[in-house]
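Appendix B. One record, verbatim.
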Amino acid sequence: MIRFMNRLRKLCLMKMDNRKNKKIYLQLYSIHGLIRGHDLELGRDADTGGQTKYVLELAKALSKDPLIGKIELVTRQIKDKHISEDYSEHIERINDKFSIVRIRCGGGKYIRKELLWNHLEEFVDKSIKYIKSLKQLPDVIHSHYADAGYVCTELTKFFGIPFVHTGHSLGNSKLGKLLSDGLEIEDIEKRYKISHRIVAEENTIYYADMIVTSTKQEIEKQYAEYKNSDPNKFRVIPPGVDLEKFYPFTQAGLRTREVQRLKMLITEKLLRFFIDVDKPLILAVCRPDKRKNISGLITAYGENKELQKKANLAIFAGIRKDIQTMPDNEREVLTEILLLMDKYNLYGKMAIPKRHETKHEVPELYRIAAETGGVFVNSALTEPFGLTLIEAAASGLPVVATDDGGPRDIIRNCQNGILTDVTNSENIAVSINKILDNKKLWKKYSDSGIENVKKYYTWEAHIKTYLEEIDKMLKKGLQKEDTFAPVGKKLFTAEKLIVTDIDNTLLGDDNYTNDFSELLRNKHEKVRFAVATGRTVDSALSVLKENNIPHPDVIISSVGSEIYYNLEGKLIPATGWRAHISFQWHRAKIKHLLNKFDFLSYQEKDTQRDFKVSYYTEENEEHIQMVREELISNRIKANVIFSHGQFLDIIPFRASKGKAIRYLAYRWNILYENILVAGDSGNDEEMLKGDLLGVVVGNYSKELEELKGCKRIYFSDVQYAGGIIDGIKHYKFLNGN
């Protein structure tokens, strides 16, 4: 669950006195779904819906504000033959201020959001690498949904960046609904990773400086279920609607030739479904999701003969090609729609088109329905906000909406329709009939919606309030618990890294150790220090303190199977590294397989780690080879490391000191030729080889003899820490620093 580091400190943010002439650099994170700067494929699947549209329109609106200097929408890069190449473009420039930045994680295939959880550490690492490549931290990061919340939580922990979050929907609410539907918790967990999501949401709520909601109900009913919920963090800022797209049906003169042609195409499409196309149109636009309760609307229409006589029903439930190949949720919903259509014999009265073709089609659907004197219906069982309701209002189309969540605020503000209990389909039919049968009431709702949307639901109003709240947040400065920003910011500016083993390298001669410690204290701030050791992290910290060695910024411990960032002795594990090396690691099986060898003696409990199995043994190459062959024959991928003539360590095949250093180089964008590594024994061999600047101290073990003559490996004649200093001079590593 939540891991707090029990440390309270102040993170001093820049004061607004210095911001008067400085424009804001803002990053929005929305990871799942399909996002591009044009022609959103809304409804293509459950992950490409209202949130996608919200985030894109928010970014575009922000980019128009003079206070914004730069805005980036960070999402996942997708390279999949079934998906448009648009989503593979690393950077898509929308205008001079706004770009979509795509970061690869979890491979290239497009996968649903629930399968992304195991890959978010990769997204964090690559986000850090991208940010560092710019040599500029964002002023604010803003996450959307739980997955992005997880990523931004990690970023703010490392850098102390002010952090805003918008949930869009919450895991606790979803869990309650799924349980009430009769699903078993095991099935929910398997499909939705719901406990993982809820933990991430708790962390996000804890670390976020501000949480934006669309309604008060979200705060009072949904966020209140979380133990980290803090009323002082919440700001109700409803999203806006693009009034240039969603203009009233009464302003037909605003239709361009393209939109006029589109209207004709939509009308022709509906003609294929309807016997009488001139009847009022009951319209629903939503994703094929069980929570949208499309079946409730069809049942209401199918069981009310009077309603069938006076109106047609059109349901635009996303984009579909072959229902049989769609994900389970969408397939079940669409199949149910077709079965209900057949059950009530709604042929000639009900339309369910396969797709809406362009970004202009949805606005035109609202206007066409309004021109027929129709009604828009949102019959969702739960509705955090209800963006379609304000789109309908702006178009002059009265609404019938679920009496839950966001629609309550919208109907109260816009006065454009009726709230009803949609759990009883008869209520839906009664409310629709009430509006269709009363022309004065229809016109009142239509006119009120058009006028009141301008007061309450424009992006201009949203941005004004949003930036005012951002300004307050940055002005007051904040206290943040459990962040690791000092180390994160040091590594953000790091250009060089010194990494050394501890035993028999850094330690062994007190005078040399003291000289090296003095060198560290006087080095340039852009040169950072790390240790890489076979010791456990606690043992490493203890011996460094005992010898008065300056705190390293990073500790690579347990032969490279663990990485910790170090703040004056307080540690935070590199969870990205753990996630990376856990692949195909079978600790229990390894221990079981090696029990048969009497030449291995299992080391003490305090030396054993989650990702390291350690033994004592004699120096015997034949025995070590037997261990390797035993693992290989049982299809176990692992690194077998023998060192100091007595220690045998088994660690994941992705782990080692060298790989850990290269991971740090990648994450923090430090060039290999700017990393100096020093060691003395066999467990240092891999980190010494390759493109790093290697230093072998004069008292080295014979296991390293074979490295003599290798490129970029310097064998010093000076022992212990003196050899490290000699190597630094040899490479002129600190020249200019």
